[in-house]
Amino acid sequence: MGPQAGKGRPLGGLLVLADATFAPRSRFPLHPHPEMEILSIVLSGELSHHGDQSHGATLRPREAQLISARDGMVHAEGNETDEDTRMLQLWFTPEQHGGAPAYFRRSVPPAPSGGRHLMAGDEAMPLRSDARVWWLDLVAGQETAIAVAAGRAGYLLSLDAPLQLGEGRVLARGEGAQLNQGGLTLRASQDCGALWIDVAA
User: Fold this and answer.
1) How far apart are CA 196 and CA 82, in angstroms?
2) How does strand 152-158 pair with strand 115-120?
3) Residue 132 falls within a domain, yes or no?
4) Residue 157's domain is classified under what CATH number?
5) What is the mean pLDDT of residues 67-85?
6) How many structural domains does the chain have?
7) CB–CB of 161/171 below 8 Å?
8) What value does the mean pLDDT take over residues 162-181?
9) Range of the domain at 85
């Protein structure tokens, strides 16, 4: 799906947001990527990564990898287990170009009392795009505030349970919404996760 509820239009530097499931024992073949920032986040199962950047890496739930393709890289991703793997993949258009490709990884610790964790957009996971990606752990009955600053745009994706936006819309599992300047309160009826993406408008 595209970053605007499946319409496929870019949102700032966010070019693609895909919620994908790999069947057991399946894999994309080796393929090239030039000049793209590719963030992959595992929601369930295991994701194997092969190629000229961190060959043989395996990602598990709440783990992410960032591939900064730059002058070009070749890789393949897949599922080498007997269970489905669900993952998110985000493609960002880089603002700086050229250079050797780079590979980064990060894991998000469980947060049973709720919280937000930066997945990409800092020195440890340096997107070459004016964007930040957050993992939100939401606790049933609690409210979580998010805000979009002037000159920015946001996209919220409900990962695994319905999520109420303020007093209005409810996002179903796997559904997303673009948010414009201003604040909003999120409320979940059960413990769940969400992805919050902040980009330059």
Assistant:
1) 30
2) unpaired
3) yes
4) 2.60.120.10
5) 92
6) 2
7) no
8) 93
9) 14-107
